[in-house]
Fold this protein.
Amino acid sequence: MNSIVIISLWILLLLNEVLCQVPDETVKVLRSEKVELTCPIDVDTCGELHSLKWFKGTDRIAVVSGDGEVAKVEGSYNDRVYLAHENKRSRLIFKNVEISDEDTYLCETTFLEPSEACENSGAYSIALNVYAIPSVIALQDGSRNSIKNGSHIGPMREGQDLQVVCEVYGARPVPVISWHRSGSVVRDSQIVEDHNGLFTVKSTLSLTLSRQELGATYICRVEMKELSLVVDNHFHIDLQVRPTKINLSGVEHHTVQGTKVLLQCQVSGARPAANMTWYNSTRLIPDETNEITSVSTQTYLQNDGTFETISQMIFTATRFENGASIRCEADNIVMRQDGDRPLHDTLTLEVMYPPVVRVGAENITVNETQDFLLKCDYEANPASLESVKWFRNDQEIKLDSRRHDGGNPENIGLIIKNSTRGDIGAYKCELANSIGKDLSDNEINVDVLYKPTVVLNMDPETPVIENDQANITLLCNIVDGNPLLLTKVRWFLDGEFLKELPECDDDGDGNSLGDENLCEVDPTKMLLQNVGREFIGNYSCQGFNLGGWGDISEENSLDIYYEPGNATITHFPYIGIKRRSVTFNCSVEDRGNPPATRFRWLRGDKPAKDVVTPSWTVDPVGLDSRTTFTCFAYNEGGEGNAAVAHLEVHAPPAFVQKLHPYTGALYSTSNISLACRVECVPSCAISWFKDGVGIEDYDERYYITSTYLPAEPATGDFESAYSVLHFNMSAWPDGMLDRIRDSSNYSCVSSNNSAGPGVRSTTYFGVEYPPENTSLSSPSISVEEGKIPPRIVCSSRAYPEPEFSWWRNAVNIVNGSSLIVNTVMERSDAGVYTCVASNKHGNHSTDAVIDIHYKPTCTITRKEVNDEDILICTAIGSPKESEFDWSLKYENDTLQNHKTRGDAYESILVLENDVSAMRTYVCVATNSVGMGKPCEIEVAGYVAWWLKGDILTPYILIAAVAALLLAVILICVIIICICRRKRRQDKSSIQIEEIEDAEFSFMKNQRSPTKPKPDASENIQQYDKTVRWRIRRFFEKRNSIDLLKLSTQNVITYVKKPQVATTTPSANANSISAKEPQQTSDDRNANVPSTSADVVVTGGTSTAGESQIEPGEYENLPFHGMQTPPKKEKEAITAKSNTYIY
């Protein structure tokens, strides 16, 4: 019974502890983040806050005064934590929270005068939970190798052990790790380690791999519900398993040779895919595709992760596969590593095929008219035949009972009677059954002997060239006959017998009776050595074989080519003339074989292309014709002997360099000459003429130099006479040419020669000079804006004639002597236009001025000149001279009293000072073009000087305002200084009076003579009374809050109690009340939120509400040593006596 009671009490105490430890608020935060712990302060209900303290567990870490002026963070938290204090809340702020900061934080509030409605318990607890997101979530295999998320492990074989570790580092609180496969939880083992508040969890998954892991995905799930965090890392297992099933299918009963056979081998349950191998009995069938067999393998991934492999072998059935056992084998790497035999399946084939035929006695030789037998053997499935056919040279033999026996299914052999040469050939047998037919692979060659037929050929083929001294071989070739071998040959020339080869005799039994070397000579060949024209003729032969002598061959001609004889050359005329023709003739008496019809010509050592006739006309004759000419005849037999002739060529006078039709020279040139060159063979002389009069050697104004130049093959020019007429300018007046008299016709004239008459060349010599005296039709023109100006024509004197161009601002605007403008002119077009006349000797220019006239545009400016306020009207127009007219806008007044002055370029109007209203003045300018647009200006009436827009006016006003502001600032500073000094003096006197009053009361109680000397316990009691007295004095001035209990551990607890007070008026109280002004009800409500009794203030001269407590009275308060206690003014209330409950 006692045990039950004890257990019950223990359970109640545990529940009470748990319930009591429930915090008022829970704050969750991640490590290294900023967090704020907020403590609510109910100032509306509990009144003014005295102080607030923060505790972490039982350790105080921060304290703040009620008004927030003093806030202190203690210990190691000073660098990471700071306080933010407000009227109704206080915040403890962590800059970056750490794991060690996790705890229950207590906020303890102390109020100065808690009211009855205050339900504050004095403490507010906050549970701070610090969480940490995992720094690393990793997967590792049993060898500590990292496994990437989503990767594959393996390949691994069926039956192997696998261990995977899922590790989580740096997490808080402890994460929950679970393994999942296909939605199901898999068992694991876990280890949890604590590292300075951060947890490391290792979960190990151990598996023995089986076929169930095919295609499986394992997920390591890390969950932290407090952070709403779920992280999945998964991996796949690449598992290798052996194949489980093999099936070979294809032909069910039998097949026929020549048809395509498809055999399919299907293997399932393997990973990786199975390797397929085909065998024909024990012979391996290669995978390569060829003309006979095609093997293709396809792999298909199944839903369970295994592969189904289908291998198809396609081949054409033949008789060799009849009864063959086709086997399919399958294995993969798992079976090979375990040493298991491959899976296999076998299929036996039956192939129906047509006969396979073969003939016997492959070679048969008979003479004409003899009989012979042809044999045929075969193999077939089925063996019964349906037809038999025989072929000769691939042509079917039409059986005739008169010449053939056999050749049917009962007797497949064939007998051929009375053979002829038509029976020679290759014989084959074709047999057929119900499956098909087949022709024998081999053949019987039948040979029937008969007499030869020959033809005569020559090697090399004729004709041949005599000069080659060639050898001709006569060949007697057999065309028909059996055997095709000649043992004897007879040779004939033009039908006459020449000889018989070989030149030996035998005794009839094949034994030679003469020279054995002669008997070994090939009788079908006869050699003709070093053939010449005497071998020409018709040759024939006759052959002999085992069948006897054949007929004589047809005749074949032997033709020998030889070259033509000597050539002879003639030409006309005997001497050639340049640019005329010469005809050459070449003749040959012996034209050779075949007769020559073509000739070859050479000019010098260069052949004449495309000239093959016996006559050649050279036209025209040139310098290249003054050489030797060679000709000879040629044919297929060669070239004949050549003939050579030399041609002499003359050239009539002709200009190589003639005078230009016109020759010009600058009048002041110091070096002038004329030159001409005349080709002439034989040579000729050159003379000079001026205007038809010959220039003599004694004329000092000229001198002539002459030279006879050699021929120039490069240009084809013959020898030529070169003459230069020089002007001796030192002999001319002033060393210059006259522009008129010296412009003449000069001629170069050659003499005649035997080839032709002389030639003449004439040039007009002109004296040239640069442009001068350039003039304009209108040097200056004026045109109104918007109109087209007249044409301006530019002229100048020069030779050769000048070219004209017009320029403006260094830009070419038009070429030609006339400046024609087809568009209207603008004022920007006004300016200088320059005409430039130029030829090859220089240029000369003149300017034309175009002035654009337009109406004036006026502007009005206002100025002060010589103490006069004036308006200046200026105008811009063309012409610049203008007349000005002033007027007022919107006014009926005139400007007769205003003074005006000016000139043709501006007008000045003097303003009057007595005009107070604003006016608008209008100015109009007029020139010779017309009246321009009026311009106007608004002028305000007369104003004071400070309102004028003078430059100094703003500076004067700014200086005045600045001086005024400076004076105001100085006065304010003086007043502030006086007030501060006055307040400091009043405060010092009040504090001194309060301290003296408190010390006097305390010393009075200590020095009472009637009391005996206290012992140690009495001293402690006396000290406790003194502290109570000081605190009571403090709270007497704070609206009568009862002091219930004071501990010696510097912690004060306050409880609101009903207050009993009896007040009676007294003269002293009245006198105090009369001296101090009373506060209004509003003031009292603001300063004293919860008062329920009056308080009598005695023993002091300070105003109501001010502190009369010594500084030592605050030693046991929370903010002792930090600042002076707060002061509030209170209304003094008189009372006779006060009663307190301690």
Summary: The two ends are 45 Å apart (CA to CA).
